[in-house]
Structures are given as C-alpha cells and as structure tokens.
Amino acid sequence: MPAFPSTSPPIVGRLAPSPTGAQHVGNARTFLLAWLSARSQQGKLILRMEDIDSPRIKPGAAQQAIDDLRWLGLEWDEGPDVGGPQFSYVQTERLPLYEQALAQLKQAERIYPCTCTRSEVAAAASAPHAGQEGPRYPGTCAANTAALASRFVPGSFAWRFRTTDERLTIHDGLAGEVSCSVNQELGDFVIAKADGTPAYQLAVVVDDHAMGITEVVRGDDLLPSAFRQQQLYDFFGWQPPRFIHVPLVIGEDGRRLAKRHGDTRLATFRAAGIAPERIIGLLAWSCGLRPTAAPIHARELLADFSWQRIAKIPFVFTEQMHFT
C-alpha cells in the first residue's frame, strides 16, 4: 500500500535556555522532554538564547548552556551555533522585532505607561496575591494613554498591556483544559521595562511566531504566562503554539531546585567525568519513561515516548541522587 503524506502541520519545538546562570538537572529535565516530544514526531528543533534579562546574565553562561545540552546528547536544527534562516537566535540581537511589535501595541492603545514600582504594587491594598505570580496589578496607571508617555522622564516608566475581562481556556498538553480570567486573576502585565528592553512575555511571543514554533514545552510555573501570551497572540492575529507545562524538579523542602539543594549543575557533573547517560537515565525515570534510573542515551527513549506516560507531579531530587 502506498504511503500517503501527512496532512498534519510540521512540528517545530524549541529549547530556550536563559544564560542567567548554569543549567541544572531541573532545566535538563524540561529540555529533555521538549527534545523528545519534537523528535518523536519527526519535528524540527530550534535553540534560542533568551538573554534579555541583562542584569542577571552571567558571562560565558550562553556557551556553557550549549555545551551542556550537546553533552547530554540533545541537538537542534537551527540556533546561534549552527545558524539557520533567522537573522539571529539570540534575543538581544532581535530587538528591532520587539520594537515593531511594541509600536503596534502603542498605536492600538493596548499598552500604557506605568510608573508603579514593585514595592508599590505589593503594598497596594487592592492587590490580591496571585500565587507564585506575586500580587495582581491593581490598575493604578491604567487610565494613562500611550501618548502620555512623552510627559514622563525617560526610564521612569514601564509599559503594561491592557488585559481583557474574557475568560480564556487553554488546552495544555499535560494539564488538560485550564481556564483563567486574565484581568481578574493576573491583571495588566509589563510588556517592556523602564530601560526600554522588552519583557519576557512580549519577546517570547514575537520570537515563537517569527520562528514558526508550534510546540512550547516549559515548566508549569510558567502556566499563567500562557494566558498572558494568548492575549498577545489574539491581538496580533497570530496562531499560538501548543503549550505543554511540565512539573518542576524540587528539593526535599518542597521548593524549586536551587543552590540551597547542593550543586546540581550540569557543568559540574560534566567536569567530574559523570557519563551523560547517567543524567538522562535519572531524568527519564523521574518522568515515568523508565522503570529504573539505569543509564540510557536520549535517542533510546524516542521509540516509546508519549506524553501520556509523563508524571504530572513534581519530582523530588534528594541528596542521595547527586552523582558526585
């Protein structure tokens, strides 16, 4: 019987490390799942360096992230080290694209200048707490128009996106249907910082659209961002990607993996001569893809990969799991 070509759109996934520090096993787990999902569907993978958070960027961290991912056995089709049709795969080199999007938002009055500081937002009596997202913005500057920005001292204000009252429902690839009233639960959000650099929400949407990303795999701490980004996609008239938010790796204290839980940096394991297959084996077991944490190469996981097998609870990384 002749094989008929698939009518499904091609899968384009992405790996998007942020060089604000060294990549650790928690980052690696999410990257592994993103890689497995795209490759198991014969999809393309793009590596994008998300380095717009300038004050927190660590020198050499971008190259180290690339080295760590390749050491794990993950590879990609486009990126800062291999090139591709995009003029750049580094966010700080893509600023003109974000500026164009910001101009459209200003013209449509969907953003406004906001002079509120974080402490002022937190102290506002009418600002209920939105879980990990911090306090909901109370709308202090919402009456401002985009044109009013010319009256403020440059660098004294950020730009906030006007959210709508509609209740959005997103079908997450792991969590299923999740709903949120963005304005009531999250509030208007920062789209460009006081120094003029784009905020995460704008840069990610512009880049994912420009790069043709169809599938976004990231930590479930970013699930609220999907609703913010959905409103941006709706404004620009762009098709959003499929979102898959995966549980985080946490320490025994129940908090997300950090320095306080010991040295879990991939670079440390690499320098100590730890085989990458040991890392992959532990991560595969933690996700529910393997019955044990026995060493395995990432490519050996492709044949049996399915999101239906992935655990929907956080993985606790214990002291006994350190490789050194």
UniProtKB/TrEMBL annotation:
Domain Glutamyl/glutaminyl-tRNA synthetase class Ib catalytic: start-end pairs: 11-283
Entry's cofactor comment = Binds 1 zinc ion per subunit.
**Motif 'HIGH' region mapped to chain:** 17-27
Q: Which residues bind ATP?
A: 259
Q: Which domain of life is it from?
A: Bacteria
Note the Pfam families from the entry. tRNA-synt_1c (PF00749)
Q: Which GO terms describe its cellular component?
A: cytosol
User: Which molecular function term from Gene Ontology is one that the record holds?
Assistant: glutamate-tRNA ligase activity
InterPro entries assigned to the protein according to its UniProt record, in alphabetical order: Glu-Q_tRNA(Asp)_Synthase, Glu/Gln-tRNA-synth, Glu/Gln-tRNA-synth_Ib_cat-dom, GluQ/Sye, Rossmann-like_a/b/a_fold
Q: Which family does it belong to?
A: Belongs to the class-I aminoacyl-tRNA synthetase family. GluQ subfamily.
What is this protein's function?
Catalyzes the tRNA-independent activation of glutamate in presence of ATP and the subsequent transfer of glutamate onto a tRNA(Asp). Glutamate is transferred on the 2-amino-5-(4,5-dihydroxy-2-cyclopenten-1-yl) moiety of the queuosine in the wobble position of the QUC anticodon.
The molecule here is called Glutamyl-Q tRNA(Asp) synthetase
**Gene name on record?**
gltX1
